[in-house]
Amino acid sequence: MPHATPDAAAAAAAGAAIAAPLSPRRRQLLDAALHVIADEGLKGLTHRAVDRRAGLPEGSCSAYWRTRNALQAALTEYVAAELLTDVDQLTDRITQCDGDERKVEETLALFLRWLDQRELLVARLELTMAATRDADLRVLLVDHRSRLVEIVANIMTAAGHDHGPARAEALVASYDGILLAGLLHPVEGRREFLVRSLELLSAAMAGPDGE
């Protein structure tokens, strides 16, 4: 039987740990890590920087995640779980909405909150870029994306727009692009940009399937 690489083992251990309910201290450290990435990029993510940001004694972060790879894997799982929780809650609200206009408003509210509290989005973008060079991170993010596509596909089916997973995946990719563009827009212009983009996207995705 082949042995797991140290990085793969660290990622698996981090994934197992994060799957359980987080202790207050782990959540404090991972929240601090989000802010470190938002301010300094992924290159600034060190155990010492996380400890400083969390206001904890040096060595606190490394006591939970011994290597930087383990910390990155745990943070990836944390970001994915937080975003999926938001999307699951959005799904619950959307299924109770009558009309596409209300659904767009609910999605807009979530996107605006994400953009106002940008740490999750920035961390996800940084980790996604890192995953293009790191097979273990890529596995974690692919699993996360598959879950997002599944959620969106279920929403489309419930709305009578069952066009299969290909269209749902395209919609998830489009949302990613809108959020990235939203980060680049001035704060005062974000709502108008998001409303316009979501309405256009909703109209386009509700059209006949081109396959």
Automatic annotation (TrEMBL):
It comes from Nocardioides hankookensis. The keyword DNA-binding applies. Residues 46-65 bind DNA. Keywords: DNA-binding. This is TetR/AcrR family transcriptional regulator. It holds the Pfam family TetR_C_31. InterPro entries: Homeodomain-like_sf, HTH_TetR, TetR_C_31. Residues 23-83 form the HTH tetR-type domain. It comes from the Bacteria. PROSITE patterns: HTH_TETR_2.
